[in-house]
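Letters spell out the chain; the tokens describe the backbone. To illustrate:

===
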Amino acid sequence: MAEQLAGLADDRALLGRTSTAERVSDILRSRIAEGFFPPGTRLSEDSIGGALGVSRNTLREAFRLLTHERLLVHELNRGVFVRVLTVEDVEDIYRTRALVECAVVRGLGEPPYGLDGLAEAVGEGQRAAREGDWKGLGTANIHFHRELVALAGSDRTDELMRSVFAELRLAFHVVDDPRRLHEPYLARNRQILQALQAGDRAEAEKLLAVYLDDSLERVVEVYRRRVGEDAAGAV
């Protein structure tokens, strides 16, 4: 916990002169997504509030916002914890992804499309793979899909999917073999990008739909096994 709190202290400057619960929640959301606070971690009001230099009321409001986003859970008489997803949660996340992401591609209109962000995310993933940074590859993969959603040009859709992708990262942090989980999708990201560069949004949507189905199957398989192992170990 000391290392995580030291990282939060570094984020203190991000709060600026007008500290708000929204800014605190942004910092904590990022830290949760990055795995600094893994699923099941209890978040101490005193320690985190001290590291960020914010009041207890501000921090509690930030906790409330993140609980509403399903990233945290409040347990009576125990405190606030980073949420541990169920298999059903993972399946629901992927249903939401398929509905939104495929609709974004389908509704793109006529090419050319603004694909610089997608191309940059593919490049980020390639660099992470070359360096053997498999968690970094997972982050690049999320960036790819976030940039894909951004093609819709909708702040509301971006906001919705920001929470969905952050929640998805909770599942990724439970998986013990990030290379096996993420590496197969680097080439598939590139294929989707190439289809969009060619102006073929129908092909891109087809690739994306199959991609998400395969990813769901893989993540659920690994997640179910890992959560089962953790539960057995706790008996």
Q: What stands out?
A: Residues 231-235 have pLDDT under 50 and may be disordered. The longest strand covers residues 72-75.
